[in-house]
Every structure is written in C-alpha cells, then in structure tokens.
Specification:
Blueprint: H1 12-26, H2 30-59, H3 62-80
Helix pairs in contact: 1-2
C-alpha cells in the first residue's frame, strides 16, 4: 500500500513551540510528534462522542434518572450533615 501524501501546515509560533516541546519530551522527531498528537486528539474526540451518547441515552432512561435523583438527594443530605 503506498504511503499517504505528505501535508503541509503553518503552526504559528505557539504551535511550533508546543510541537517542539512534545517531540523533546517524548524523544521523537517533530513529524512523529505531530502524527501522535493528531491520532491522540482524534481518539479523545471519539471518546467524548461516546460519553456524550451514553449521557444522552441515560438521560432518557426513567429508571436511571430516578436513581440519579436519589443519589443527588443522598449527597445533599450528607453535605448538610457537615
């Protein structure tokens, strides 16, 4: 399988500084640091989307909503006893 085509981008001063720091801290090239950062950012977004979908699903579950209310009430009562 052929390698994907290279890309070019302007990072600006803060972006370049962050990339250099990341590469230095990880002991890798700037190109590898950029690849890793992109993959890690995409993974974080996938997790966020999954968590948001789970929260949405739970908010529509009457039993779960009731349980959340009960837990919140217990926590409020515990907070009042301090």
């Amino acid at each position: 399988m052929p390698a994907p085509p290279p890309i070019s981008l302007r990072l600006g001063h803060s972006g370049l500084s962050a990339l250099e720091e990341l590469a230095r801290l990880r002991g890798i090239s700037k190109a590898e640091a950029a690849r890793q950062a992109i993959e890690e950012a995409a993974e974080r977004e996938r997790r966020r989307e999954g968590l948001a979908a789970e929260a949405q699903r739970l908010s529509k579950d009457p039993a779960d909503v009731q349980e959340m209310r009960e837990v919140a009430k217990m926590m409020e009562e515990l907070r009042g006893s301090w």
